[in-house]
Amino acid sequence: MESPAVPNTVVISERARDCRKKRSKNKSQSRSQNVEFSHNFSWKSDKTQQIYSSRLLQALRQVQLNPSSSSAPQRGRAVREAADRALAVAAKGKTRWSRAILTNRLKLKFMKRSKRQRVRVSAGVSRSEKRRVGILRLKKGKNLPAVQRKARVLGRLVPGCRKEPLPVILDEATDYISALEMQIRAMTAVTELLSRASSSGTRSSGTGTATAPRADQLGSADHPPPMMYMSLVG
Amino acid sequence: MSSRRSRSRQSGGSRITDDQINDLVSKLQQVLPELRNRRSDKVSAARVLQETCNYIRNLHKEADDLSDRLSELLETTDGTSAQAEIIRSLLTQ
């Protein structure tokens, strides 16, 4: 085979060098409990929001089809849980809070089905490598009771971070806040769409200008892949 | 690997440095709308944490309100026409 051997080896060696560089960089970081990990996508991008909106609509359809609970708060709660689940899926399992949301749902499902079987769905996934002694001896400056207290409160707010040390909580909270903001943006857009869709009749004249800001909210920078939305139809 | 981390207390390699914590706190501060414009050396870590807790609670509350509104809308709208409208508006951007 007349394959150009030299460029290939150059490419391969470059890639290996990059891998080694990345690995050494990661090693120096991972020594410190691997706090920083790179996110390949951004919560701020329009594409992420589009993908999340379509997933959310799919999940909402399922909620709509199974109106098992009749009271309003339970329905609202079901919608919120579906939205959180879709958000955790969008995170692709890279963060503790997303994994905690998904495993919590699993745990509840198992508990409901059979109370006898105690299925522990690896709750220790967030604690497997961390030790709790480190909380008190973390750093003298951060041992102030105010900071520690607030860190505990924050750890309770972010799902899956109850017993984590401070740097983990800080990192998780940063990502969680960005994700929540995206969730709010997407849910607002979907609510607008649904409310416009439900108000039938006054669609002829006013929607010419009204659709533009809504489309911007959903992210019209890239052309939307129509196949993704076609799956929503019946 | 984990055993080395769990037992060493004074070795510098496996400790969380103060700089790392400050870096994380400043990153968190950039996300908060209240504190984004202030210089990071003027805002204490406790303040950042407090604002974070408040902000997350606000976001949760907003999400709950939106969920309630969405559930009401889902109850009252007709399924197929609503989705047709959504799809139409999404495609005609």
From TrEMBL, chain A:
Q: Where is the composition biased (Low complexity)?
A: 196-212
The reply on keyword Transcription regulation is yes
Q: Which region is the signal sequence?
A: none
List locations, semicolon-separated.
Nucleus
What is the name of the protein in this document? IBH1-like N-terminal domain-containing protein
Q: According to its record, what are the GO cellular component terms? A: nucleus
Biased composition annotated in UniProt, kind: Basic residues: 18-28
Could you tell me the Gene Ontology terms of the biological process aspect for this record? regulation of DNA-templated transcription
Q: Which CDD domains match?
A: bHLH_AtIBH1_like
One family from Pfam that matches here is IBH1_N
Q: In which organism is this protein found?
A: Nepenthes gracilis (Slender pitcher plant)
What are the boundaries of the region Disordered?
Answer: 1-36, 196-234
Which terms are listed as keywords in the entry? Nucleus, Transcription, Transcription regulation
Where is this protein primarily located? nucleus
Q: Which GO terms describe its molecular function?
A: protein dimerization activity; transcription cis-regulatory region binding
Q: Domain IBH1-like N-terminal, which positions? A: 47-107
The uppermost taxa in this organism's lineage are:
Eukaryota, Viridiplantae, Streptophyta, Embryophyta, Tracheophyta
UniProtKB/TrEMBL annotation, chain B:
Q: Which CDD domains match?
A: bHLH_AtPRE_like
Q: Where in the cell is it found?
A: Nucleus
What GO terms describe the biological role, i.e. biological process, of this protein? Answer: regulation of DNA-templated transcription; regulation of growth
Molecular-function GO terms, alphabetical: protein dimerization activity
* GO terms for cellular component: nucleus
Q: Which residues form the BHLH domain?
A: 5-59
Record's keyword terms, sorted = Growth regulation, Nucleus, Transcription, Transcription regulation
Please indicate which superkingdom the organism of origin belongs to: Eukaryota
Record bears the keyword Nucleus? yes
Please name the InterPro entries in this protein's record: bHLH_dom, HLH_DNA-bd_sf, PRE
Quote the Pfam families the UniProt record gives. Answer: bHLH_ILI
Q: What is this protein called?
A: BHLH domain-containing protein
Which species is this UniProt entry from?
Nepenthes gracilis
Its taxonomic path starts at:
Eukaryota, Viridiplantae, Streptophyta, Embryophyta, Tracheophyta
